[in-house]
Amino acid sequence: MQSVDIEALNQQIYADSAFVDVLKAETNKVIVGQHTMLERLLIGLLAKGHVLLEGLPGLAKTLAIKTLSTAVNAKFNRIQFTPDLLPADIIGTMIYNPSKNDFSVRQGPIFANFILADEINRAPAKVQSALLEAMQERQVTIGGTTFELKEPFLVLATQNPIEQEGTYPLPEAQTDRFMLKVKIGYPTKEDEREIIRRNLSVDGFAKISAIIKPEDILKARKSVRQVYMDEKIEQYIIDIVFASRNPEEYGMKELKHLIGYGGSPRASINLALASKAYAFLQRRGFVIPEDVRNICKDVMRHRIGLTYEAEAEEVTQEDIIDQILNTVEVP
What we know:
Strand 6 and strand 7 (145-148) form a beta hairpin. The chain has 2 domains: 21-215, Rossmann fold, CATH 3.40.50.300; 227-327, Magnesium chelatase subunit I, C-Terminal domain (Helicase, Ruva Protein, domain 3). The strands form 4 sheets. It has a 5-stranded parallel sheet with strand order 2-5-8-1-9. The chain has a two-stranded antiparallel sheet with strand order 3-4. The chain contains 14 helices and 11 strands. It has helices at residues 6-16, 18-27, 35-46, 61-71, 87-91, 125-137, 172-175, 189-200, 214-226, 231-245, 265-281, 289-300, 308-312, 317-327; strands at 51-54, 76-80, 92-97, 102-107, 114-118, 139-142, 145-148, 154-159, 180-183, 259-261, 305-306. It is globular, with a radius of gyration of 21 Å.
């Protein structure tokens, strides 16, 4: 690898990431707590990935992405997934115009910078596939015409973990398209007290200002790619992913019967990218092992398949990732 002037790179990344603290402060005017969720949204945004969010109703999932889109001065659309939704309801369709005797394209709600796919598991597979194709290709074809989706383009898909009746769970191969799967829980007592006070305030919610422009996000993405990652960190990422596939090679024979399948090459790519984005958010020009460990569960939890034995023993993906992180040698 080429020699890198770490000090100069560190100063450059520190300057390029100056907007991060201001952006967090602006979103915190509306969002109480949920720092991890907002941080993961920023990682997805900066690393050109998408986020799958699993949490109970009322935990500010919609509010978080809407607030972020306002602060970035970007277009936001919310799509409520229901069993009767059609692919055309998402990507758009051809509309006949009688006065002109021809068809014109009516673009769907997918044409925005920030998309909230609310309760994605409530729509059938063909609708989920239409969204996931747009996420992967970042383009949509309507009536033989292909339209590029404007960058930055971020999909936040939510899943409700408590109601499974009448839902269509995302297949494992499709959840792999999401860079991160984030699980969020209830706020603390102090946070919930603040939520009550803000909601009952005479002045109502604080107004969010546009702090940055979409172009600033695209510029920041280039800076994220420049964050330095040492060969030892690369090897650490590879070892973590390979340990999820072949745990016996890393001295974890007891995991062999619990893991149906491990992380794909997408896991390695996304773990490296997300680690760089996390370092960028810390306003640092290089990746350290703690960055990888911090983001590892969100990158890996939807990429490890459990066997029936694991489910019978009530072993979760998080348990397996914890054991891998505690066993694989840290550089």
